[in-house]
Write a structure and sequence with these properties.
By secondary structure, this protein is mainly beta. It has a single domain, classed as Lipocalin. Helices cover 6% and strands 46% of the residues. The chain is built from one helix and twelve strands. A hairpin with a 4-residue loop joins β8 and β9. The termini are far apart. The N terminus is likely disordered.
Amino acid sequence: MRVLIVLLVVSSYVFAEPTADVDFKVTMGPTFTASAKGVKGKVVVQNGEYVAQNIVVDLKTLTSKMDLRDDHMKNKYLEVDKYPEAVLVTGKGKDGKGVGKIKIRGVEKEIKGTYKALNDKEVEAKFDLSLADFNIKASYKGIGVKDTVNLRVVVPIERSPAAAPKAVVKPKK
């Protein structure tokens, strides 16, 4: 199951806000990560299969902590005023591998990736994307990002009622 973007550290008692991370490799410079806190959606576990629909990332919340780069990323390349969200339209996974469809800048593509449950409340998905698949070519003054980016996302898990453990009722004596 491939979802968009994050690696969060949480305890089993605290639920952190879902976040998506994108790792970029620069053609002539250091790598950088952009993070989005505006992630909505959940993964439902049914009979050992992880199923996701309409996981939404608010691209306007995406930040790399460098103002000029963020301005170019959001306004020039992602066009967030026109395309404010990236959406995992569908995703299914079993045994740590998954497939899905993602929509960015109005373009929908199939994706493949991996996932793992971080605990009983959250799942992390990882996958690679080609920026060219979404008509994105990012460069500024001869320096650009490489075409393939690595995505991580952590979203809440919801267990279907059928997956929940059943209470054992003992007869009264």
